[in-house]
Design goal:
Layout (H helix, E strand, L loop, with lengths): L5 H8 L4 E4 L1 H9 L6 E4 L2 H11 L4 H7 E3 L2 H7 L8 E5 L4 H9 L7 E5 L4 H14 L3 E5 L7 H6 L8 E4 L10 E10 L10 E4 L8 H6 L2 E4 L11 H14 L7
Parallel strand pairs: 2-3, 5-6, 5-9, 6-7, 8-9, 8-10
Antiparallel strand pairs: 1-4, 2-4
Helix pairs in contact: 7-10
The site of S-adenosylmethionine has 17 residues, from strand 8 and helix 10.
């Protein structure tokens, strides 16, 4: 029996799968154990050359997985063609398993909470940071889907290197909540514990009333007077760095 047409497989799975848009997203997803039932490229030679250069560890898997399809067929599968002309679909990890990992104690690295984030690019950048620092996970509250293709693209496929779920404030994982707010105590006087829940407010309106009510501590990043606030993803970067530089990050 001949192998199924990858485009048929794609169309069958697209509605329920995670879109990996570009070579780097696919590379990261494979490295961190994603199940990838279909991967296509408009230029297999170029994609495998990139694998030789940047991803020797998953090169054999890529060689087995990647099917070349005509350029127009590739373009029809993605919202915005990627310079590497690679796209794949991955199985979305189980929510039940994700919730179990978020709830598990003791925890060796914080959970990052984005409270009602609005910008998909910011959410992707935060997931990439969480993956880099070995954070336990990223939780969002509100309506933004943290598995939206634009977030996965911004996160470079690193959703598979951490746990990513959407929850309500009432469902947040256990652990002391350190909420980041310019009006809080100077973070430099605070040691963030490994089981911390680090919460950040929305780009437009900051922390919600519900999140403030759950917070055990309000902490501020150093900032010169007259500057109102930092960008959300930048704030997460500084906070995770502070955690790692003050004793955390055994895993990194
Ligand atoms: C762009 S800011 C939100 C600005 C918003 N206009 C406000 O009223 O807070 C997004 C989030 O980044 C974090 N943040 C930004 N600058 C900060 C600072 N200097 N100290 C602590 N957190 C900060 C906070 O969690 C904030 O809610």
């Amino acid at each position: 029996m001949s192998a199924p047409d990858p485009l048929d497989v794609w169309h069958r799975l697209a509605g329920t799968s995670v879109l990996l848009d570009g070579f780097h997203a696919l590379k990261h997803a494979l490295r961190f154990g994603a199940e990838v039932p279909v991967a296509v490229t408009a230029d297999r030679t170029a994609a495998l050359a990139l694998a030789d250069e940047l991803a020797a560890d998953v090169r054999d898997t890529l060689e087995e997985l990647l099917t070349e399809v005509p350029e127009p067929a590739y373009r029809s599968l993605v919202p915005r063609p990627h310079p590497t002309a690679v796209a794949a679909l991955a199985v979305r990890p189980s929510r039940a398993a994700g919730l179990e990992r978020l709830a598990r104690l003791p925890r060796s690295a914080p959970v990052v909470v984005l409270d009602h984030p609005r910008n998909l690019g910011n959410a992707g950048a935060v997931i990439r940071l969480a993956a880099g620092f070995g954070a336990t996970g990223v939780v969002t509250t509100g309506t933004l889907d943290p598995w939206h293709p634009t977030v996965v693209r911004g996160g470079a496929g690193l959703h598979f290197a951490t746990t990513v779920e959407r929850l309500t404030v009432d469902e947040l994982p256990p652990g002391p909540v350190f909420a980041l707010d310019p009006e809080g105590e100077d973070i430099r006087a605070t040691k963030l514990p490994d089981d911390a829940v680090l919460a950040f407010g929305s780009e437009r309106s900051g922390l919600s009333a519900g999140l403030r009510a759950r917070a055990d501590h309000l902490v501020a990043l150093p900032m010169r007077p007259q500057v109102s606030s930092y960008n959300l993803a930048t704030s997460v970067a500084m906070t995770l760095y502070h955690w790692s530089a003050t004793g955390g990050a055994q895993a990194v």
